[in-house]
Design a protein that fits this description.
Radius of gyration: 17 Å
Low-confidence stretches: none
Shape: globular
Oligomer: single chain
Number of helices: 6
Mean pLDDT: 96
Largest sheet: 7 strands, antiparallel
């Protein structure tokens, strides 16, 4: 039986091109997913420098030429149509969410594909580490922290993290597995008490869905590729297109390609 987990990347992208929309956690198992941020060319260096200075939150896997909606991560794919949902930003304000960005794509946009923590989830699952949000059919929970990223050019903003409830006796395994994948955020930035990141209520994530913990679970936090969206809100570039949090681009690259 075909499920979202057993779809090929091309099959998944075809569904999104036909306007299917939904979070992509657990889709196309074993294949790498990426975050998207596309900015005018005169902001591209600022974004690249921001990513270079904050590599755990913003690991760059590919960068397009200005106006080019293709990516080396998936032959024949189109970044304007092959994600399930996009966000459109003007002067740092979210002005629309759309299923197809073709009409709002500009000839001067440079697209950055950033590593996504959904990629290391397949490695966690392969070793039997539970993924509560997947089991509950929810998007992963994401939070804006009180930690500032290293500013770069005109870009600045707070670190955003994704959170997974991990059984206490599997936390060391989760750390070991994800540290081996630095191109997709690597190991956790914080374990345990969310107040250490300035998070006051796990039941109210800034992005994604609240996730129910099981007895004995410990909240574990990873740097998140939504961080550039927080930087957009803080830095207010005139225009940008991003993925909607949790609605990722599914590449043709294998998750195993990013293990060290």
């Amino acid at each position: 039986m075909t499920t979202t987990a057993t779809l090929s990347p091309a099959q998944a992208r075809s569904l999104f091109r036909d306007d299917y929309s939904g979070p992509t956690t657990g889709w196309a198992g074993g294949y790498t997913q990426t975050n998207l941020i596309a900015v005018p060319a005169d902001w591209a260096y600022d974004v690249l420098l921001f990513c270079t200075r904050n590599p755990q939150a913003c690991p760059v896997l590919d960068v397009s030429d200005p106006g080019d909606p293709t990516t080396r991560l998936a032959r024949g794919a189109d970044l304007r149509t092959d994600l399930p949902q996009y966000r459109i930003w003007q002067d740092g304000e979210l002005v629309a969410e759309v299923a197809d960005a073709t009409e709002v794509w500009r000839d001067d946009l440079v697209a950055f594909s950033l590593g996504c923590s959904f990629t290391f989830e397949s490695a966690l699952a392969a070793e039997g580490v539970p993924l509560r949000h997947v089991d509950q059919g929810r998007n992963v929970a994401m939070y804006v922290t009180d930690r500032d990223c290293e500013p770069a050019g005109r870009l600045h903003g707070p670190l955003v993290v994704s959170m997974r409830q991990i059984p206490a006796d599997r936390v060391d395994d989760a750390v070991r597995i994800t540290r081996a994948m630095p191109a997709v955020h690597g190991g956790p930035v914080h374990i345990g008490d969310p107040s250490g990141l300035g998070i006051t209520d796990l039941a109210r994530p800034d992005f994604g869905d609240p996730v129910d913990a099981a007895d004995g679970d410990v909240p574990v936090f990873w740097a998140c590729g939504v961080t550039p969206q927080a930087a957009l809100m803080a830095s207010r570039p005139p225009y940008a297109i991003t993925h909607s949090p949790g609605y990722m681009f599914i590449t043709d690259r294998r998750d195993s390609d990013y293990r060290v």
